[in-house]
Amino acid sequence: MEETQAVKALAALAQPVRLRLFRALVVTGPQGLTPGTMAEGLGISASALSFHLKELVHAGLVSVERSSRNLIYRAEFGQMNALLGYLTENCCEGAACAVTPSGTCTTC
User: Fold this and answer.
1) Distance in angstroms (rounded) separating the CA atoms of residues 52 and 33
2) Is the full-model pTM beyond 0.85?
3) C-alpha distances out from residue 86 to 1, 11, 24, 43, 63, Å
4) Which of 8, 40, 56, 106 is found 20 to 30 A from 46 (Cα to Cα)?
5) Phi and psi (nearest 5°) for 15?
6) 40 pLDDT exceeds 90?
């Protein structure tokens, strides 16, 4: 991942509603969610949902697919993992890093 892509993804996630949307899609997994389900589950209006989903799609973190009359939104796990890799590629100066369940590195 390049720096500009990382900045775009991080900017998209740097908003509470978009972060909640993305986390909901990650939890749901590959089957994805419809906009109606997301709006109901997160308690936001359809227009606000549409705006936030557009930003996540533009950042490459979410994809959308039409399935008959529904739109299905899914987290882009490859892009998410690329972002995590970009953020941690120099952890421990490139050496193998043992991370504990709490998220702390035992090598650094």
Assistant:
1) 14
2) no
3) 6, 15, 23, 33, 20
4) 8
5) -145, 130
6) yes
Domain parsing of the chain, residue ranges: 3-94
CATH code of domain 3-94? 1.10.10.10
* Cα gap 8→1, rounded to integer Å: 11
Are 61 and 79 within 8 A, CB to CB? yes
Cα dihedral sign for 90, 93, 96, 98?
negative
> In the block, which residue shows the tokens 């299905």?
72
Q: pLDDT tens digit string along 46-83?
A: 999 999 999 999 999 999 999 899 999 999 999 999 99
SS (H, E, C) 6-69: HHHHHHHHCCHHHHHHHHHHHHHCCCCECHHHHHHHHCCCHHHHHHHHHHHHHCCCEEEEEECC
Residue 100, CA atoms < 13 Å, CB-side half-sphere:
6
CA 32/CA 65 separation, integer angstroms: 10
